[in-house]
């Protein structure tokens, strides 16, 4: 019979458990003291800006600038960077950037994270997102670092904005006004009508094009001309050009009789938008136009 004054004997497992707990507490205390003495702390991160580096009819290239600050006396590595772009809680693109670099001791670094959005992928997944619209987006970024003493830390950050799904402009050759007409060479003005179907203004900076009348090229050129085409609006640009009517053969007589002639054209326009510069292609085939004198009344058009 056990004496009531004799301490109870613990099982081996309990003794071992108590010893391990004491060791863990000791290590934890040592870690905290080291952290306090050396000054280890958690890094911080923030998305400072998101810029649209380039944009066309196929893709949008975004760059997220993430400022990471390291308060520790030694460099810390960025193990991984996870990113996600979504619009109205719908995933547009996601990815992982491994081994993203090192943040210097007691320093800060701006990490540039490239983000590529392919419009065809968006259209296949979400058919209600149409060209010409502007959609909201949210960028979510997780930076995973490895800090001595503390261990792995995940820094979640996010930023919101808007981005366009551009629509290429419709371009029509409304008419050709000729000033000096001769069979050898004719100087004229092309009247091009631009139809902007986007929900944002287009500031026309430059235009390169090639035009064919009756399957005969009347030349190509690059033109720097400032113009603004408002969102969901239209604008007319006049372009001087010269060509040789005798190269048209029998098609020229249809033009002279006022019957008009078929034309096709293709080119690119460089535009400024609130989202940055864009280079948008345009093309038109199978159109019809007429030659008119420069002083003709345009009311009928």
UniProtKB/TrEMBL annotation:
<dbReference type="InterPro" id="IPR004864">
    <property type="entry name" value="LEA_2"/>
</dbReference>
<dbReference type="GO" id="GO:0005829">
    <property type="term" value="C:cytosol"/>
</dbReference>
<comment type="similarity">
    <text>Belongs to the LEA type 2 family.</text>
</comment>
<protein>
    <recommendedName>
        <fullName>Water stress and hypersensitive response domain-containing protein</fullName>
    </recommendedName>
</protein>
<dbReference type="Pfam" id="PF03168">
    <property type="entry name" value="LEA_2"/>
</dbReference>
<feature type="domain" description="Water stress and hypersensitive response">
    <location>
        <begin position="171"/>
        <end position="287"/>
    </location>
</feature>
<dbReference type="InterPro" id="IPR013990">
    <property type="entry name" value="WHy-dom"/>
</dbReference>
<dbReference type="InterPro" id="IPR045043">
    <property type="entry name" value="Lea14-like"/>
</dbReference>
<feature type="domain" description="Water stress and hypersensitive response">
    <location>
        <begin position="45"/>
        <end position="162"/>
    </location>
</feature>
<dbReference type="GO" id="GO:0009269">
    <property type="term" value="P:response to desiccation"/>
</dbReference>
């Amino acid at each position: 019979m056990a004496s009531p004054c004799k301490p109870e004997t613990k099982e081996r497992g309990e003794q071992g458990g108590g010893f391990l707990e004491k060791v863990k507490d000791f290590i934890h205390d040592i870690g905290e003291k080291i952290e306090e003495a050396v000054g280890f702390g958690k890094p911080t991160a923030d998305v400072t800006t998101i810029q649209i580096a380039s944009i066309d009819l196929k893709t949008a290239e975004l760059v997220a600038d993430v400022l990471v600050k390291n308060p520790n006396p030694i460099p810390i590595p960025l193990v991984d960077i996870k990113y996600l772009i979504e619009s109205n809680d719908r995933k547009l693109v996601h990815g992982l950037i491994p081994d993203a670099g090192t943040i210097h001791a007691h320093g800060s670094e701006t990490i540039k994270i490239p983000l590529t959005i392919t419009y065809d992928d968006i259209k296949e997944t979400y058919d209600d997102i149409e060209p010409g619209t502007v959609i909201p987006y949210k960028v979510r970024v997780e930076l995973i670092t490895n800090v001595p003493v503390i261990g792995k830390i995940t820094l979640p950050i996010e930023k919101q904005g808007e981005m366009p799904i551009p629509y290429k402009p419709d371009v029509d050759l409304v008419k050709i006004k000729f000033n000096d007409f001769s069979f050898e060479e004719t100087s004229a003005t092309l009247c091009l009508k631009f139809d902007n179907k986007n929900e944002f203004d287009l500031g026309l900076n430059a235009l390169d094009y090639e035009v064919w009348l009756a399957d005969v090229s009347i030349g190509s050129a690059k033109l720097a001309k400032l113009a603004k085409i408002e969102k969901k609006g239209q604008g007319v640009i006049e372009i001087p050009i010269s060509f040789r009517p005798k190269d048209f053969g029998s098609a020229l007589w249809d033009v002279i009789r006022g019957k008009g002639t078929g034309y096709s054209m293709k080119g690119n326009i460089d535009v400024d938008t609130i989202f940055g510069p864009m280079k948008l292609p345009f093309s038109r085939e199978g159109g019809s136009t007429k030659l008119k004198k420069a002083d003709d009344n345009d009311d009928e058009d």
